[in-house]
Amino acid sequence: MDDHTTLMQLEELADKLGVPIRYDKIKPEEDEIVISGGLCRVRGNLVIIINSRITTRNKIQALVEALKHFDLDGVYVRPALRELLEKEQESNF
User: What total number of domains does the chain contain?
Assistant: First the structure.
């Protein structure tokens, strides 16, 4: 699966979970630091904020990092996407 398709499927999964994604320019105070984004709470609601300036691959990584916090047992997730999410969870242990 190519990166564009993976990104689109992760966006669809977030939509199924009712979690909006915002792509914003995130400019850190120091130019050497790159902030990808992640899951946060805005006015009491969960939102995934992604830096619009990062690569597609980094957007995928930020979305995987955010979505792995949700219970996906009752949600249909394409096998390749589920594998990506589970692989990420295992690498954090």
Answer: 1
d(CA 55, CA 90): 24
**Amino acid present at 87:** K
> How far is 77 from 42, CA to CA, in rounded Å?
26
Q: CA-CA distances (angstroms) from residue 51 to 2, 59, 69?
A: 20, 8, 19
Say how many C-beta atoms besides its own lie within 10 A of residue 7's C-beta: 16
pLDDT number for residue 21: 97
Over the chain (93 residues), what is each successive 10-residue block's mean pLDDT?
Answer: 94 96 84 81 95 94 94 92 81 49
pTM of the model: 0.85
Domain range for residue 43?
3-86
